[in-house]
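Study this protein:
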Amino acid sequence: MKTLPQPIYPVVDSAQWVKRLGQAGARFIQLRVKDRPEAELLAEIRSARAIAEDLGVCLVLNDYWQIALDEGISYIHLGQEDLDTADFAAIQRGGLKLGVSTHCPEELDRALSFAPDYVALGPIWETKLKKMAFGPQGTDRLTVWKKQVGETPVVAIGGITLERVRPCLDAGADCVSAVSAFTGHADPEGQVRAWLAAAGC
């Protein structure tokens, strides 16, 4: 049976955020770094990997599956567009664990064909972080999808706040994920602790 390291899953854009949230108790963190020169990108990823190893954090690298293979990072997250270009033979040979973004039944079917270690469903609520082609899914969709995917963990993302952690988990999500609820909060470390408490950890 596939399981996730923790039921909360912050998404951050720097190694320093991995350190701050990891020190507060987060053990499952995604590093999503965009639009950086290659040398700067590699330095950030290497720093995040070292910090994660030191703190006992399971680090998930967004998009850069080849760098994950090269740098010894064991978990990647891919969007639907990334599935078009990723070398899954190399990913499987390297033993990488895989998470995939999904937004509709067709994308879910496609994601499941790659036997992922989790599927992320979103946005559950409206999100201002990025422009989405899909509207809010709602917690009812979490219940439906959890029944469909069987043992594959479901990660809820999109518009999730502390108050929405428990409703998502109660609806069937195995894990709740957010960006700005952590990195945009006045007390990010306190949010980690509060989300863990809400999740029953």
Notes: DSSP finds nine helices and eight strands in the chain. Residues 35 and 173 are 31 Å apart (CA to CA). The beta strands are 8-12, 28-31, 58-62, 75-78, 97-102, 118-121, 154-157, 175-178.
